[in-house]
Amino acid sequence: MQAVIKADKLSKHFGHFTAVNEISFEVAPGEIFGFLGANGAGKTTAMRMLCGLSIPTSGTATVAGFDVYKQTEEIKKNIGYMSQKFSLYEDLTVLENIRFYGGIYGLSDRDLQQKSETLITRLNLQNEAKKLVGSLPLGWKQKLSFSVAVLHEPKIVFLDEPTGGVDPVTRRQFWDLIYEVADRGITVFVTTHYMDEAEYCNRVSIMVDGSIEALDTPPKLKQQFSANSMDEVFYELARGAKRSE
């Protein structure tokens, strides 16, 4: 199948600093693609270029068939996005947030009514629907934010450190939601610095200092590096990068 994300030697420079250095990869439709690396590795910068929020310095890329240089508005119409900082309005209720973003995504009143009811039921938020989002626990906020990001059934959803700051149980529940949208054919592109979350992805790339140093399925990467966990794989990559400096 034709890739929904293609990047070829994509780079981003800020003055003399190279944040992303000639990264190349493809993502298949419906794939859960993990974009891993330590904080400061360049993950968020790369994602912002793919979302049409930042123009690359060099290289090429297409997202949902649209060019990241010339068709950024078309890209935005075909993706969902959840930033690492909670992105809903805390002074609006749960239902008001859903309806507000549904309107931005262009859903009809009928679709919005149906999707609002379905979403609230799926998240078991019936008793909180009319409460301010700011009153919800962080884990619920994150799950609601993710659900709103895919309310319009985008081709791709970009998740930037979506489980940061939440407890392990909530993190696992969040990944259950990711599996659900992937089963609906939505491609999931997720950045994280939690190496154990790599095990949940179909494939992962690992960035070190702005470059992709490894890309494959978790089992094959562990086999390649004779490792028992993705933490060990990342440790070997980081150690190799330091030796080459």
From TrEMBL:
Q: Which InterPro entries match?
A: AAA+_ATPase, ABC_transporter-like_ATP-bd, P-loop_NTPase
The alphabetized UniProt keywords are:
ATP-binding, Nucleotide-binding
Full protein name: ABC transporter
Q: Does the keyword GTP-binding apply?
A: no
The organism named in the record is Solitalea longa
Residue stretches making up the ABC transporter domain: 5-234
Top-level taxonomic group: Bacteria
Name residues in a coiled coil: none
Database matches in PROSITE patterns? ABC_TRANSPORTER_2 (PS50893)
Kindly list the GO molecular function terms attached to this UniProt entry. ATP binding; ATP hydrolysis activity
**One family name in Pfam for this protein:** ABC_tran
Asked whether the UniProt record includes Zinc among its keywords, one would answer no
